[in-house]
Amino acid sequence: LAPISYTSWKSLGGDTAPLDFVSGTHLTMRNDANAVLTIRSFVNYRTPVNADSLYRSLFAQLSKRHVKHLVIDLRDNGGGSDDASNALLPYLTDVPVQPVNASRRRTISIAASLRKSFSTWGDASAIFAPADSLFMLGPGGMFIERAAPERFRPAPERFTGRVSVLTGKRNASGATMLIAVLQQIGARTGRLRVIGEETGGSAEGPTAGQVLFLTLPSSDVRVRVPLKRADVNVTNAVSGFGVFPDIDATETLDDFRARRDVAMDAAIHIPWAKSSSPLSPIGGLMIGVLEYRDYQSGRRVLLPTWQHMSPMAERGAVRAAAFRERVVYDDGPGNTIYSTNEIRVVGNLWIEGEASETPDTLRIVARTVVGPDTVLTLRGSGMDDNKPVEFRYTVTLGARVSRRLKEFRMPGGPWEYRHEYRFTREPTGRVN
To answer: How far apart are CA 183 and CA 190, in angstroms?
Structure first.
């Protein structure tokens, strides 16, 4: 669509009222087995309500109706108040859960000469100069709050069926923190899954909670200066990123035009059994390295790397053997590289490439079982360093190990090393 002016944008119709927790939360019964709990905001300070009372009433209805599957739609939720997000946990966990670790601050005393330049909310004196006794000095000179982090016990009305949590790019702040905790509960219990798109925000925790506002004198631009770092109590976060979904249901432009809700269709229709694809064992997060041979110098280079694999949904079903691969490379301070790819295995073909691109197709010429892992040998042809070559990939797929060795050779020449991805998954699932 053609761009429009700010004046035109302001004249557009639609609901422009700010969302609150109470007005953005509602329960819908799709049928006897499925219900949808939509929570569009956790903002609970403009029109405050008792979050636990609201959830208790909603989950009592689910129990009364004997609902087996609950879809929690958080896609519009950008966060808000801790009480609204944390109060949901007792209704979804079977064991006590601590969503965050103790908060940290770089400083606990702001000079009086600086305070007049800042504004904030709440008790300014407690924010600018809290008592030293409330903190202990931690690693790196950070001040850690002494107060024990809050723990939440399962509620008597907790939901015991299966839960699908719908996520999207609008998720941030407390919404993303909650989703990260829920995903860890799902990994442990097998009865909760995250479906949709990669979230915004930070799965490892934001700098928020206590914020100073500074208006720059020359431009009148107001900037935020966060004081606290909240660390989410999860072991599956990739630094600098949100939550990656268990089932990828990324909305395409065609989906939007057709008003097709891929994530909701996936939640309702996709079975809970794991995909039968050979890629299924390496689903989820793994940590490792990319080792490659530099084109110019010929030397071997190592990059810390993370891999996430998730089956892809399309129109209410898992697309035939298709997985979304997300790879994060740590290429030094301030240089994080992120890429996505689609991979699917169809018969003896290994097909890579985004749907909008011409895919690369390799032949699977050998399959070998080595202990608990499957090793595939792939062959194909293409270009390397602007020269036509033959490729050979050796791919290891396992629940604890994922490896991909790429070799090439000129016509009639020997096989030469190009690069190798090597990933592992710890028994605890820890990757950060």
So the answer is: 10
